[in-house]
Amino acid sequence: MTEPTNGKAGHVEEIHWPSLVAAISSVSAVGIAIGLGLPLLSIILEKRGISSSLIGLNTAMMGVAAMIAALITTKLAHRFGVVQTMIWAVVLSALSSLGFYYAESLALWFPLRLIFHGSTTTLFILSEFWINAASPPSKRGFVLGIYSTVFSLGFAAGPLLFSLVGSDGLMPFAIGACIILSAAIPIFIARNESPPVDEKPELHFIRYVFLVPTATAAVFVFGAVTVGGGSLFTSYATRLGFNESQAALLLTVMGVGNFIFQIPLGLLADRLHDKRPLLSIMAAIGFVGALLLPSLAWNWVLLAVILLFWGGCVSGMYTVGLSHLGTRLTGADLVAANAAFVFCYAVGMVLGPPTVGTAMDLANPSGFAWAIAFFFGLYVLLSGIRLLFMGNRG
């Protein structure tokens, strides 16, 4: 299927700052809460004597919730409107975050995870749609770079906040719920700026996964590599011979790369009519960087330099992929495609950790690098084939 051309996408000529401030600040508040909640919930379950496998299974509900939310968010936005759907998502995520404190049974944590992460995923989908709709095509990459940078700061602030408040009592849960509820304030202020979803999407949800495959495959790789690689990198680094503090610092270097490269990559994407070559180049850098990891195990500094650029390229695939999506579609189609985008991220988030973990069991420790290279290599192959043979489609 041939995608809509750039002439269809992007009805705005100037940046709508009230819309962008509302969408970016709301989703960043949620990012702080998620960054606080992930270590908080794991530590509380560990204190209760829950096994690591059950903790991992409960955490995996994140991906399941994201898939469910991706399937229904477009319909909710069409029926109730973007703002009302986002406000309800804020309320549900805040209430469910408090629910973790009061739920003594682990069985209750599974539906709570579904509600919490399903609601926050709805906020991400609609915020990114709002950002895309409020951005002129010539500045979309720049705006999405700002979004990714601010969200990265918010997500990084969550663990810092956790280190300050700890895991005891109601306080960390109450703080998280209040932060989430604060996301409703900018949404309400800019309620008249929200983009309409007046029509139903033209296609079935799954068709949007394949309508812009270069973007959806990019976010699949992003999900697999960031969650799979991020969750197991510390184990990989310690198996290479680094101590825990050195391993944690390497992970921080990757986070710095994620932070500093998003706006420059967004600006670069704005200068390109076709963003697919840039996505392919970033994937190729990720592929080569992953292959170099085992050979650099002897030198922490060189490894850190590689990880700095590698982290920027990994996260850049999300930013540029989302920008590519916005240049192709608009209106209800863009909401549906954004949902498909997040759905593919969730699939990567579910498949990444077991793939990387199994590879490390089969080839310790280099299996980590081979598994990461595998995901990037698949994308390089897919994007290369599409660029060579599929012309302007995808």
How would you briefly describe this protein structure?
This protein is an all-alpha fold and 394 residues long. The chain has helices at residues 17-47, 52-59, 61-80, 82-102, 106-133, 140-165, 171-182, 184-189, 205-211, 213-240, 244-270, 276-292, 300-328, 331-362, 367-389. Helix content is 80%, strand content 0%.
What does this structure look like?
- The structure is a single chain.
- The protein is mostly helical and 394 residues long.
- Helix 5 crosses helix 14.
- The longest helix is centred in the last third of the chain and has 32 residues.
- It is globular, with a radius of gyration of 20 Å.
- The N terminus is likely disordered.
N-to-C order of helices and strands: HHHHHHHHHHHHHHH
Largest sheet: none
**Overall SS class:** mainly alpha
Rg estimate, integer Å: 20 Å
Mean pLDDT: 83
Number of strands: 0
Strand % is under 5%
Number of helices: 15
Core attributes:
single chain, about 400 residues, mainly alpha, globular
Blueprint of the fold:
Layout lengths: L16 H31 L4 H8 L1 H20 L1 H21 L3 H28 L6 H26 L5 H12 L1 H6 L15 H7 L1 H28 L3 H27 L5 H17 L7 H29 L2 H32 L4 H23 L5
Helix pairs in contact: 1-5, 1-6, 1-7, 3-4, 3-5, 3-14, 4-5, 4-7, 5-14, 6-11, 6-13, 9-14, 10-11, 10-13, 10-14, 10-15, 11-13, 12-13, 12-15, 13-14, 14-15
